[in-house]
TrEMBL record:
The keyword Transmembrane applies. The keyword Membrane applies. It comes from Komagataeibacter xylinus. This is DeoR/GlpR transcriptional regulator. PROSITE patterns: HTH_DEOR_1, HTH_DEOR_2. One of its GO terms (molecular function) is DNA binding.
Length: 272
């Protein structure tokens, strides 16, 4: 019975992941289309959509479902992991080039920071401070990395720790470089949807000698609820070459030190 339950649970999870991918690829999908596509009942589809909506992965509308981004969807870890991955990988590679063995660095809970993990694993001796459970779990298996995981209240949507305990732990530390990201950039200001996360990011910024913001080009011109900082408060802002020239010029005129990651760099395949 237990094995049957596990198998059924795995089937549901697999179907729901496939459903998210299907809807994301189309933007808007009707219920009847999902019933046909996944060969199941309308009741099952409604249960799936209720669960996915509660996680902020999909948004139900009259007669169907959509992935049009809203504040909740932007916050979802699974949504963010699927969003702008080429851009994030390019920025992560550029950011990793700023690190040398022996450095003490901090990584926030962002999926962009998560993309740096593979680079860190091959760098030798590093001390890494993070409130991300996913990053900590991966780096814990790397012998050359001294890991400092920040405690606090676990937030499953972000797979990370926040709250007073987290902020106090950060306040007791000093790191060389902080690598972090945000939900949105509007004008020359960075924003995030969640107030508790803004507090943790502020604490990380205060603890760092050097602050590096990674924001892919799709985040520019978008909105989130809480203002985090002026972009000029970061020592370096990394984005990708999808950012338009007018915005680049505006940032430079504002005194922002800008570094641009080339997307073609991650698409290059070395000949065998």
């Amino acid at each position: 019975m237990n094995m049957l339950h596990l198998a059924e649970t795995g089937t549901v999870a697999t179907r729901r992941r496939a459903m998210v991918d299907y809807v994301m690829g189309r933007g808007n999908v009707e219920i009847d289309e999902l019933v046909t596509r996944f060969e199941t009942s309308r009741m099952t589809i409604h249960r799936d959509l209720q669960a996915l909506s509660a996680q902020g992965l999909l948004r139900r509308v009259h007669g169907g479902v959509t992935t049009l981004p809203n504040g909740i969807a932007e916050s979802s870890m699974l949504y963010r992991r699927r969003r702008a991955m080429r851009e994030k990988k390019a920025m992560a590679a550029l950011a990793a080039g700023m690190i040398v063995p022996g450095d003490v660095i901090a990584l926030d809970d962002s999926t962009t920071a998560c993309c740096m993990v593979d680079h860190l694993a091959t760098m030798g001796d590093l001390t890494v401070v993070t409130n991300s459970l996913g990053i900590a779990s991966t780096l814990a298996a790397v012998p050359a990395i001294s890991l400092m995981a920040l405690g606090g209240r676990y937030h499953p949507t972000f797979d990370a720790f926040f709250g007073l305990m987290c902020e106090q732990a950060i306040g007791a530390l000093r790191v060389g470089t902080l690598f972090m990201s945000v939900s949105a950039v509007h004008g020359v200001n960075a924003y995030h949807q969640e107030q508790d996360i803004v507090k943790a990011k502020h604490a990380l910024m205060r603890s760092a000698d050097r602050r590096v913001l990674m924001a892919d080009s799709t985040k520019f011109g978008s909105n989130a609820l809480n203002r985090l900082a002026d972009l000029s408060e970061f020592d370096v802002v990394i984005t990708d070459d999808g950012l338009d020239r007018a915005m680049r010029d505006r940032l430079l005129d504002h005194g922002v030190t800008l570094r641009v990651a080339r997307l073609c760099a991650i698409d290059t395949v070395k000949p065998e």
